[in-house]
Write a structure and sequence with these properties.
By secondary structure, the protein is an all-alpha fold. The protein has 16 helices and no strands. The longest helix is centred in the C-terminal third of the chain and has 20 residues. The radius of gyration is 21 Å and the shape is elongated. One of its GO terms (cellular component) is cytosol.
Length: about 325
């Protein structure tokens, strides 16, 4: 478990754009959920890093009186310090302090009393967690210590107010950083947790940014052979995924979002690689993906190719009634 204090994710309320395949996901569309402490640093500017100051901020994480400012500064500078993750992980008491910050938020989730300032502070911790999840040296230890499980209480929240939305979005960013590595160990770990139903719920009812990151996570799980096999193993798992993807297509037909549509189509295409799922998709693929409803929205060449390939994969059974919104139970039993 916690090795003396060695452990350790992303900027307040921000998800790295590359984590979901597009730079537009890089920043919150709204101002911060609450007031941040005034930054006092001028030591890390224009790419110049004062490593002594970085070490001092890490040490200040261990002091409750200086922790908030240290969290803010480190979360802002994490991209300028490539080895920040190992520095955090191997420094005495640091990860214990970060976990203390995370668990102190739990009582504020139910009933939902989280303030903007509290959300921002937690998101700064999550920013450092994402740093750990992204780094090759710390990712494996991050998983072995079951750190993603500390985020699930945040992902289970349903309040739509800004502090909770930022908390969910930044937590999703940590999982997104993990799956972006394309490592089998990551997928194996996530499949032992409730990440798929959690992502599906957010895909159905979250904000556009949260839906995008959650769909990206599902996509990365599906792109793994074990992940695809897991989801297509039973009718119940496949039908839940197909139902949510179908709802998203209907919603995107009314409120377009090209980035989100791209991930939805990629999920459908990957599902069509499984023979039993392909048979079921021939019955339940939404009409909007067959009748060129999204033609004007799809400008990305990859997305165009994915949609054409998807329809080609389903071609043999297209001929009867199309777009029937049901899944044949026997197809995946």
């Amino acid at each position: 478990m916690l090795n003396g204090g060695r452990f350790g994710m992303e900027k307040t309320g921000q998800i790295q754009g590359s984590a979901v395949g597009g730079p537009a996901v890089g920043q919150n569309p709204n101002p911060p959920a609450g007031p941040q402490p005034q930054s006092q640093s001028s030591s890390v500017q224009n790419g110049n890093v004062d490593r002594e100051q970085i070490y001092n901020w890490i040490l200040e994480l261990g002091n409750p009186e200086t922790r908030e400012m240290a969290l803010l500064e480190l979360s802002k500078k994490r991209e300028a310090v490539p080895d920040l993750a190992p520095m955090l992980w191997h420094s005495f008491g640091t990860i214990a302090a970060l976990l203390q910050e995370i668990t102190s938020i739990y009582p504020l989730l139910i009933p939902p009393t989280l303030t903007g300032a509290q959300s921002n502070r937690a998101c700064n911790v999550l920013a450092l967690f994402q740093c750990l999840a992204s780094h090759n040296e710390t990712r494996g230890m991050f998983l072995q210590a079951h750190f993603p499980l500390y985020l699930y209480p945040f992902l289970h929240t349903t309040s739509r107010v800004r502090p909770f939305e930022y908390l969910r979005l930044t937590s999703l960013g940590v999982i997104g950083a993990l799956v972006k590595s394309d490592e089998q160990e990551v997928i194996n770990f996530l499949l032992t947790t409730e990440i798929i139903p959690v992502c599906l719920r957010i895909m159905e009812s979250g904000s556009e940014l949260s839906k995008t990151v959650a769909t990206f996570i599902l996509q990365k799980i599906l792109l793994d052979d074990i992940g695809l096999s897991y989801i297509c193993q039973t009718y119940e798992r496949f039908s839940h995924v197909a139902m949510i993807l179908g709802k998203m297509v209907l919603s995107l037909a009314k409120v377009p979002c090209a980035r989100l549509l791209k991930h939805v189509i990629r999920c459908y295409l990957r599902l069509s690689d499984n023979p039993r799922a392909r048979d079921a998709l021939r019955l339940c693929l939404p009409d909007q993906l067959k009748d060129d409803s999204f033609g004007p929205q799809i400008r990305d060449e990859h997305t165009k190719v994915w949609l054409i390939t998807l329809l080609k994969n389903l071609e043999p059974a297209i001929g009867g009634p199309v777009g029937e919104q049901r899944v044949a139970p026997n197809a995946l039993n």
